[in-house]
Amino acid sequence: xxAEKKINKRIKIIGCGKMASAILDAWLKKSISPQNxxxxxxxxxxxxxxxxxxxxxxxxxxxxLFDYCFIGVxxxxxxEIGLKLKTLSKKNVTFVSMLAGIKINRLEAIVxxxxxxxxxxxxxxxxxxxxxxxxxxxxxxxxxxxxNLAILLEAFGETVKFVEENKFDAVTAIxxxxxxxxxxxxxxxxxxxxNLGLTYDEAFKLVKHTIDGAGSLIVNSSLRPQxxxxxVTSPGGTTHEALAVMMNKDNGLQKIFSAAIKAAAQxxxxxxxx
Length: 274
What we know:
There is one protein chain. This protein is of the alpha/beta class. It is 47% helix and 13% strand. The protein has two domains: 11-165, NAD(P)-binding Rossmann-like Domain (Rossmann fold); 178-273, ProC C-terminal domain-like fold, CATH 1.10.3730.10. It has helices at 18-30, 46-51, 82-86, 104-111, 143-154, 168-176, 178-195, 200-220, 225-232, 238-246, 253-273, and strands spanning 11-14, 37-40, 57-58, 68-71, 94-97, 116-121, 131-137, 157-161. Helix 3 (82-86) links the parallel strand 4 (68-71) and strand 5 (94-97). The relative contact order is 0.10.
């Protein structure tokens, strides 16, 4: 089973913002015919409307039976599409929610406990087929549904299957929000480079390829990040000097990252109670 495998399934997407659009783009490139995808979105983007020319169905009223319904609205607006979701129940649809903080039992309360429901947490690098998606199925998802869903998710990156849904707040804080942390690091490193006398173009090119290369090393090396860091840190050298500041126990990165990621996890918990 690979991301290159084609599957002939009909998919409904309710709410197609940045994340859902990234996923949709991956499918159109690799897995699914646009004629088999139906998007419901009150304000379709210019990009979506362009895809309509290729056969993508946008806000089309139809009696088509769907295999999967991906839910991509904002978590706070879930109740507003409750009726639309209910009309799809009892029709052998697998509901796939990418809503941060929304637990499976909340969806079961809307569509019914007998429905197949999967909670996923993708992230933005899906846009370039480099995402990672955590997912948790309820007990009603059958083997074939699960296998086909895996193909859909692997079309835009790696997957991690979870048995315990209570880990999703941590997942959201680590991988869901994680790309933004790296973007901020890139932003700050570039700013410091400019302050040290580099032009923006010089600093940004150095930063983005440094991050790209370091990330590739993490992915492709058998060594843990700590060992990779130690290998590049010579005692008394420039890297050692920088890390001494970053790893300060009182005000270093560990304290900042810990507080920031825990705040994201807490927000995910709050969303689940809203």
